[in-house]
Amino acid sequence: MEFIHFINTSTLNSIKDKGLRREFHYQGFGIFVYPLIKIDFKAPNQEFIIEEREINSNLSIEESWEVIGALHIRQANEKVLGVVFNLSSEFWPIEIKIDVGSHISKKFASEFDKIKTDVFYQSNLNLTEVVESISAKKYILETKFKVISESGLKSLIKCYKKSGGGIWEAMSVYCLITKNIEPNMIKRIVKF
């Protein structure tokens, strides 16, 4: 399974020499990466349906994730590159965070309960119980999972998509890895 991490062009030579290095982020210590698996964009409301259709039909998987994961680079008016790599077995488990909207949360929790191995909800809490305990009518549940393997990650994303989940905002779905990506692990650099 391939993953992508976004950089600006000024860091390319450093990445080629040293690879990707872990950093402190507001969500933890590691490297933010995105799985190169197609997850459709889902418009937050009817106003953006045309954009949703255009993005889903016209963008490659890399381009779709670039829209989500490289916003901070584009906002700084810098050119974006994607660093694509695979994760070997020593990188697992990884952490994945998924923003789950109230409109799909019950279905997502139900689908998640069907996953028997390789994926654990944060602190081994019961996701269905967490969802049922929320009293607000409209919310975004920031879920965090520990994923033991590539097949577990694929199962979790399949569950999310089957529940009606999609990406739109900057951090809808992302993974955090806690080991450095060495230069020899980089498969390709994608220019946007």
List the helices and strands and how they pair.
Blueprint: E1 2-8, H1 12-18, E2 23-25, E3 28-35, H2 49-58, H3 61-69, H4 71-75, E4 80-86, E5 94-101, H5 102-113, E6 119-121, H6 127-132, E7 140-147, H7 150-162, E8 173-177, E9 186-191
Antiparallel strand pairs: 1-3, 1-4, 2-3, 3-8, 4-9, 5-7, 5-8, 6-7
Task: Describe the protein in words.
- With about 190 residues, the protein is α+β, with helices and mostly antiparallel strands.
- The protein has helices at about 10-20, 50-60, 60-70, 70-75, 100-115, 125-130, 150-160; strands at about 1-10, 25, 30-35, 80-85, 95-100, 120, 140-145, 175, 185-190.
- Strands 1, 2, 3, 4, 5, 6, 7, 8 and 9 form a 9-stranded antiparallel sheet that branches.
- Strand 2 and strand 3 (about 30-35) form a beta hairpin.
- The longest helix has 13 residues, at about 150-160.
- It is globular and about 50 Å long.
- The two termini are about 20 Å apart.
- The model has no long low-confidence stretch (mean pLDDT about 90).
Structural class designation: alpha+beta
Secondary structure tally: strands: 9
Described by the principal axes of the CA atoms, the overall outline is globular
Biggest sheet statistics: 9 strands, antiparallel
The unreliable regions are none
Number of helices: 7
Give the terminus-to-terminus CA distance: 21 Å
Strand content: 25-35%
Order of helical and strand elements = EHEEHHHEEHEHEHEE
Look at the structure and give the mean pLDDT: 92
Rg calc:
17 Å
Helix content: 25-40%
